[in-house]
Every structure is written in structure tokens, then in C-alpha cells.
Amino acid sequence: MKRIGKALFLWGIVAVLTACGQEGAPALAQNINIGADSAGNTAGGDSKEASTEASDQEPSGEDGVFRFAYEGAMLTPGEPVDLSGLPKYSDVAEVPSCAFGGNDKIYNFKTFELTAYFDADEERIYSIYFIDPNLPTTEGLRLGDTVDDMKSFYGDSYETEGASYIYTRGETLLILITNKDIVTSIEYRLNK
Amino acid sequence: MKKKEKDILSTGVVLVVFCIIFTLISMLLQPKYMTELEEGSFISQYYREAGGHDVIFLGDCEVYANYSPMELYRDYGITAYIRGTPQQLVWMSYYVAEETFRYETPRVLVFNVNAMRYSEPVSEAYNRLTIDQMRWSGSKAGMILASMTEEEQFLSYVFPILRYHSRFDQLTQEDFTWLFRVRDNTFNGFHLHTEIIPAGALPAERVLPDYQFGDICFEYLDKLRLLCGENGTELILVKAPSLYPYWYKEYDAQIREYASEYGLSYYNFAELTEDIGLDFSEDTYDGGYHLNLSGAVKLSRYFGSILTEGHGLTDHRQDPEIASVYNEKLQIYDKTIEERIREQEDEKDR
Amino acid sequence: MINLIIFVIGIAVYAGYGISVLYLLAVTLLSYLAGRLIPRHRWVMWVSTVLQVSLLLLLRVRHRLPYQSIIAPVGISYFTLQIIAYHVDLYRGRYEPEKNLLRFGLFVTWLPHIFIGPIEPYPRMRAALEERHISVDHFLKGAVRSLWGLFQKLLIASRLGVIVSAVSADPDRYDGAFALAAMLLYAVQLYADFSGGIDIVLGVSRMLGIRMSENFDAPYFSQSVSEFWRRWHMTLGAWLREYVYIPLGGSRRGRLRKFRNTMAAFLVSGIWHGGGYLLWGLIHGIFVFLGDSFKTKSKLLNRALTFLLVSLLWSFFIWPDTADALRMAGSVFTVFNYNVLFAEIGGMGLGPGDWIVSGAACVLLGLYDWKSKSLRARFCTFSPAAKISVICLLALTILTFGRYGIGFSASEFIYSRF
Fold first, then answer.
1. pLDDT given for residue A15 in this prediction
2. Domain map of chain A by residue range?
3. Measured between CA atoms, how close is C349 to chain A, in angstroms?
4. Which of B205, C90, C229, C402 might form a disulfide with C398, Cβ 3.0–4.6 angstroms?
5. Are the beta carbons of A21 and C331 separated by less than 8 Å?
């Protein structure tokens, strides 16, 4: 009787835990998929990001990051480089990376430069640097606009560093350099 | 022997053995900088050649890649050494100069001003490439204290095992081969490159929020200037002819102003590439960041004439003692160049 | 004089943690004064105990209190229990109150043990302070003990913690086999970290001539959960027995009362560990009450099952959210992703060298636990040179294979434009 009691007790505990563990069962299939992709990297994370289509994304700020809209493509610092939606770049330079190992690649699209870094073997956007004064940001700011214009687009929640105004959204930055209250540099950058 | 004396003696032996093993393990775990990251050994190669140089170069890769002391001697009889190291910052240059003056007093000290753009340590990894193999002295201690990034600790420089212990599972053949040996892979500090990678696309010139050099940079430049003055050495400021990163006109203006204020010579070779005869389709080994041998020869010839005519340096080619040493060096230098070129051609044919 | 120096140094070090040192000093002084009053004004014990228990409970239940930085000093869980024990003993008339403020201050604030224990009863601490005797022999023994503790922390705990952290950070992804691996590794990590810390405390105290109570006795060699609690965090167990279990009646007056008293003690234990560990404490209480009921004839099997059960229950510490902890513990029985575990574990932050070092260190730890008494006795017979050799060997091993500092990563050495 004692033995049956002990056995029932133990099985009871296992049953309770199994019931608790059932909530985790749907994760099994996902785990197998992750395991099939690769060993020990961000495969799961990547698939989550890749599954988000650009068209589902808000231009800027609605989901907490800066995005640069350019001819239908959406460029976000930190996200994988996808050149298919962009016009052909005129030049590409490889420069030693300041923040990461290896070399950065800088794609020149004539109106802006896109700097990409390598995360493991994947190219990701580090920064977008404006060259053409006629090129607007997603919200409409251009090189040569005033600081007041800047504030009307982006508000007052910025940090200053010398002549720089730095807006932060999530892991992304919008860095605006001014000279005598005129915007002389616009750069979207990954906060790293 | 009494028990107590025996205990003391045996304890002493144990401690000595411990110190030896500790030292050996530390040496084994430290990167050797002989094949991988060989630039880390540049600082220590000087000690085997210390003394008898009329010219000492200080600075980062813009000095050890762009100037060839062998060419300076060959064409002008100038004895020179390049005490350049990777990402050598201004305060590092000062301490290297301070240390150098303990070994010799050059006629001229050439300082490449590129580092003036950096007013903070760049990274611990770069610090280590300059500091690790430097001999211990007050200068080294000063350099460490001035250079340490936030996460670093002074003790990790005193006891490198505290920093490099995690290399225990990354040891390679190099760590054992070069445990007790060293090899010189520069020619009086010149890092030889014969490859050609023509300059290609470069990034657009970035607007900066602030072009002013940091106070700390001027502070150490002042110290360097005064140190040279105390030792009767002329300080010459140079900017190497690299295409990138950009040497902004605002940077140039500050150096010109400084040079003018203190009566120093300043040569911005980035503006004189035509006069030097540089052709970035063949005179660079990495797309315009540094010169290769061909470029270094041209720059050294150009600068050599400035040093001789403008700064009165002596031609030592007729000095038998110096000539015998340098002629031997030149033989090895020329032989190495021949071998490298031959290897490259063989590689191309394959 | 030495006591004063040790006290001042301890307070100075504690002050490095912030303004809460003032609270510590205030509590020490007030507890001393309360202790002097208790023999004649016994109600003072109740006031003091209620106040201290209330504060501890509040800290456990609410994670953010006003003036938290002052009234929640590091180590409050430990010195509060010590002070409560002292006051209750005085209430019971077990000994006279301590008249020497400095000695009382050291009892409360003895630096090596304030952060991690052991929870030392006052008479023992007093005797240790009175019998304090610094000698070369004690110093060497203490040094070895401290280094052994550091060995456990830096070679085992800090490495295994990498995997445990990775698994616990993503419960949606890492369940089933990952959860089981985390629980087993955490069991070892926690032991190495806690026991290692205690070894450092005992070692440093010994170097200063103070002998403190042991807190662990090879707990993973236990054959039942009740035995486990006789070997794990022994001073806490002793405190719970003395000040909760026995005052409630202990095991007298029938099984029901014994059950109630056991559960009460483990309820207190759960709360003491943190508000979210109630269930953990209660489950342990049930198994302790059941005693040796589930023991088989095989010692090895008993030890393995006890280890597995205890590891499973550490899930409440790995996943602080109780729902997650239960889910992860349950997933061990429902999700069998062992192939994924073996494929991914190599990339979760530990290289082959780390696994080898931690594996070898765990084997050494196991051997030490198995034979600790004879090993310590043997060590006592070593000559000073031999003792120093052991110290040097441990130091070299820790310096070379320990996981500490920034850590060298070849990729950090950017071969780049200099």
C-alpha cells in the first residue's frame, strides 16, 4: 500500500509537470526548424526579422526605429543589406571597420552612401550618409535646412554633442551636424 | 640543518620554481606578434638597433609603411629609425620619444601628425600592439596610464597572464616557436610591402561636428616639443600622403598654426603627391591608405632631400663604421625585395 | 587592536557598496542596545524581531522600496538572521548579552561572511573571536581553502553560467533538453559558486585566525532530499531548525504537526531566498517530510535520483518567473529535442577548451567532496613547503584556466588600418 502510494505520488508530480510542459510543446516544431538551419547562431532571430516585409513596416518611428525610405525601398540601420530594391550603386569602397572586425563596405549611390558591416557572414546596414542636398529624409529634412526645420520634423528629444544633434529611436540614430544653424550633414546610423 | 632552516630553504625553492613556471606560462600565453599581427613586435625591434640614428620617426602606420630608412641611407647617407606602431596615439608618441632619448639623441625627430585627430584611446587591442613588447620603464608606465581604456587594468600589463590567460585554448605553433626567439621583420622600422593594389573608390568626405583637435593632443604635442628642445633635437611635423582617412583642411590649418607659432617645420605630403611623383595606381599596396615600396622610395627620396638640404643632416656614407653596418643592411634589404617580387610574379603566373 | 582594524577595514570595504553602510552600522548599534535590554525587557526581542522580519519580507515581496539604497544593504538576509537568533537566544536566557560593542560589531559585520554566510550562531562567533590565533599554519591552510573556493568559482561556476544564462534568456526557444541541460549545469554552477564562495570566506577567516562553521558537506552525494538539506547550506538549515521548526514543536505530537512544522520551516526558507521561491521551498518541504521514503537499495541510484530531483527544482532559480519555471521543468518530460541540443550547444558560448577545463574541474570537485575529510587531514600533515606548493599550483591553475577579466578574443585584435 505504501509502495503504491509512493508510486502514485511520483507519477502525480510527473503528470503535473508534464501538463505544465505542454505549453511548451508548440515550440518543438520551431526548435527543429532552427536546429536544421544551423548550429548555434541567430538563425531563429534572423528568420523572425526576414519574415517582416518592408511593406509591413512603418516609415519611421512607429515601431521605434529610424528608417530611410528611398525609391520604394526601406533602409534601416542594423538590418540586412538588400540591394535588390535600390538603383545600381556607382562605386563600392572597402575600408577597415572602426567598430567591427574586418572591412566595411561603402556603397555610393551618388545621392547617399550606404556603409555595411559584416555580422558573421551577413552584410548589415551600419549607416546611411547623405551626399545630395536635394535628397530628403523619410520625414522630409534636407541638407541646407535649418535647425528649426529639423525640430519641426523630429521634435526636441535630441542629445547634442558639439554641433551635432542626435536623435535616438531604439537601436538607430539620426545624426544631424549643423553649422550656424544650417544642417550640413545627415546620417542614419546604427547605435553601436 | 635545523628543521626551521630546512623549511625556509625548501619554501624558498618552491617559490623560485613557482616564479619560473609562472613566467614561462605568462610568456607562452602572450601573443608573439611574429606571424599574426606582426606589427605588435615593431616596438621591441628597436632595442636591438638602438643608438646612432640621426633621424627618429614617430607615428602610426603612416610612418612605418611610407618611409624607408634604407632608401634614406642609400641616397643621402642619413641614418634613421622608424619607431612607428599601429594606431600610435599622440601620448604614445611622446612616451616612445621619452624612452628613445634614454638610448640616443637624434638630430631630428619626425612626428606624423595623423594621430592628432584621436583624443581618446581607440581600443585596448591597439594599445596592446604598442605597449606589450615595450621594455619596462617609467615611460611604459606613463604610456599605459595615459592609454588605458575604461575596462583595462594596469595590473594586466604588469602581469600579462591576467589578460591573456584565455588564450590557453588558442595557442598555435607560433607561440611555441617564438617563445624564446625573436625575429626582425622590419628594416630599421620600415614595414616592406611590394604588392600593388591601385587606389579605387573612396568614401565621400564626411562633415564633422567638430574639427578641433583635443586638448590632450596639444598637451602631448607641447610635451614632445619641449622634450626635443631639452635634448637639442629638432622636431619636424609631417603628414603622410594617404588618400584616406581625409586630412581635412581644418586639421591642416591647426598644425600650420602650431608650427608657425613654435617655429617648427611642417610638411603636408598629402598636398605634394605630384611633386613627390606618386601615382596611386601603382604606389600603394592597399588602395591608397598606405604606400608600397615603390611609393615609399619616392617619398623617402623627396623627404631625404629636404632633410639634407633643409635640415643639414650629415651624409654618413663615407663613414667606414656606419657604412659597413648599413651596406650589410642594404644587401639584405635588396635581397628581400628581390625575393618578394619574384614570389609575386610566380604567384601571378600561377 | 587587531579586531578594531579588521572591523574598520570591513566597514570601509562595505562602504564601497554605497550609503547602506549607514544602515548596517545603525542596525548593529541598535541590535547591540536591544540585546543589552532583552534580559530585563523581554518585549524588546519581539519588537526587534518583528521589525527586522517585516523589512526582510517587504524587500522580498516588493522589489522597490523608498530609500532602497539605504535600507537594503548587501547581506541583509544573512545578518538579519544572525541578529534574530542572538535576540531569541537572549530571550531564552541561553547566555549573557555581549557587552563589548566592537566584538558584537564584528559578529554582525565580519566582512568575509556578511555577503554569503555562513550564518554563525553568536556563541560560536564569540568563541572564534576570543580564540583568534594567527599563525603561519592557519594562514597557509586558509590560503589553500580560499584558492580552492576561487578555483570552483572561476573554473566551474563562471563557465557553466554561460550556458545557463543563454538558455534562461530565451525560454521559448530553449526548452526540453536545453532546459534539462540548464538545470543540471546550474546545479553544479550554483554549488561551485556558493560553496566556492563559502570556501573563500572560511579560508580568509582562517587566514585571520578565525574558524567558522562549515556550510556544505558534499550535498550532491545525498541519497534523499532530507539528507540533502542536512548537507546543503547547513547553517541556514540549523537556523530554521532552531528558530522555526523546534519552537513550533518539531516532530513531537504526531505526523500532522511534523508536516506543518516542516512546511513552515521551508516556507520561511522559500521566502528568505526571495518572494518567488515559495513554491520551491514548499516542494522541498514535502520531500523532506517524506524523508527517506523513496530510497532504493542502490546508493548510486539514490544519489542520481536525488541529484536529478534537486536539479529539476533549481528551475525556480533559473527562470525566476514561476510559470516559466514550471513550464521548463515540465518540458523536460514533453519536449525531446536532444538532437538540437547537441547541434547547438557548441555555439552557445563555450569552446572545447572551456568544456574540457570545466569538466576536469568538476571531476576534481567531485573527488574532493568524496574525500574531503581525508584530504584535509592529509594536508595538515604537509610540510610548509608542500603546503606552499599546493597554494602555488592552485594559484597557477586559477590564473591560467580561470574565466575572469576581459578575456582575450582573437577577433578583437582588428587587423585594420592602423
1. 63
2. 59-190
3. 9
4. C402
5. yes
Specify whether C20 is located in the same domain as C86: yes
Residues C77 and C220 in one domain: no
DSSP assignments along B138-198, one per residue? HHHHHHHHHH--TT--THHHHSTHHHHGGGGGS--HHHHHTSS-----SBTTB--------
Looking at the structure, do residues C97 and C177 belong to the same domain, yes or no?
no
Does residue C221 share a domain with residue C123? no
pLDDT tens string B200-230: 888 889 999 999 999 999 999 999 999 999 9
Domain termination site, one of C295, C318, C345: C345
Domain annotation covers residue C209? no
Which residues of chain B make contact with A162, given a CB cutoff of 8 A? 209-210
Which residues on chain A are in Cβ contact (under 8 Å) with C328? 21, 24
How far apart (Å, rounded) are the C-alpha atoms in residues C208 and A126?
Answer: 55
Indicate whether C409 belongs to any domain: no
Domain shared by C87 and C181, yes or no: no
Verify that C123 and C219 share a domain, yes or no.
no
Based on the domain organization, do C221 and C278 belong to the same domain?
yes
Most B-contacting residue of A88, A92, A95 (CB-CB within 10 A), to test interface: A95
Q: What share of chain A is helix, strand, coil (3-state, %, to 5)?
A: 30, 35, 40
Q: Write out the residue range of the structural domain in which residue C300 sits.
A: 172-192+214-345
Residues in a beta bridge with A176 = A165, A186
Structural domains in chain B, sorted by start: 31-349 (3.40.50.1110)
Chain A contact probe: residue of B61, B120, B207, B211 with most A CBs at under 10 A: B207
Residue A25 is predicted with a pLDDT of 33
Contact A137, A74 (CB under 8 A): no
Q: Which residues of A touch C (CB under 8 A)?
A: 2, 6, 9-10, 14, 16-25, 27-28, 30-32, 34-35, 39-41, 44, 95-97, 101-103
Asked if C400 is an interface residue toward chain B (Cβ–Cβ < 8 A), one would say: yes
Same domain, C326 and C181: yes
Render pLDDT for C26-78 as a digit per residue (tens, 0 to 9). Answer: 889 999 999 999 999 999 999 999 998 888 887 776 656 566 555 566 778 88
Query: Which sequence positions of C are flagged as catalytic?
Result: 273
Q: Could you read off the pLDDT of A159-185 as tens digits, one per residue?
A: 998 889 999 999 999 999 999 999 999
Per DSSP, helices labelled H in chain B are 3-29, 42-45, 61-64, 69-76, 90-103, 124-131, 138-147, 155-158, 161-164, 173-177, 215-231, 249-262, 273-276, 293-305, 311, 320-349
CB pair distance less than 8 Å for A164 and B209: yes
What ipTM score was computed for the predicted complex, to two decimals?
0.86
What topology does CATH give the domain A59-190?
A: protein yfey like fold (2.60.460)
Domains contained in chain C, number: 2
